[in-house]
Design goal:
Layout: H1 3-14, H2 19-25, H3 30-37, H4 46-55, H5 60-71, H6 86-98, H7 104-121
Helix pairs in contact: 1-5, 2-3, 4-5
Length: about 130
């Protein structure tokens, strides 16, 4: 699943909506919405994200968060390390090879390290 798909599914369930009902309301097929929730489709379009924000009547902060989750939810990531250090290339390749077997606690540790680095640099990756 992607972060965006996880959030949309939680919003849908919190409202007590079936996948079929939400898909019909948004004029999507249930198969497409299911694939989006499960990360089997590419990132949603900006217009679909806006449609979902309106559908759930999300407030400003929640809408911004959903937009950012959509931006960070491409299920097939490509990392170009050309021009970077050999350590950067090693990290990218190890991550690609081992991410499927990495447990959530370790993933959280890695994300925390990256979040600290982003905070020092003054960038936001959430």
């Amino acid at each position: 699943m992607t972060p965006f798909g996880t959030r949309v599914r939680a919003l849908r369930k919190r409202q007590g909506l079936t996948l079929s009902r939400m898909a019909a309301d948004l004029q999507l097929t249930p198969a497409y919405l299911s694939a989006l929730e499960h990360g089997h489709r590419s990132r949603p379009s900006w217009s679909l994200v806006q449609q979902i924000i309106d559908y759930f009547n999300l407030i400003w902060e929640d809408a911004d968060e959903l937009r950012e989750l959509a931006r960070m939810s491409h299920p097939r990531v490509v990392i170009d390390t050309s021009g970077l250090s050999s350590r950067a290339t090693l990290l990218a390749n190890r991550l690609a090879a081992e991410i499927a077997e990495t447990d959530d606690a370790v993933l959280e540790e890695v994300l925390a390290v990256l979040d600290r680095q982003a905070a020092k640099a003054g960038t936001n990756t959430d």
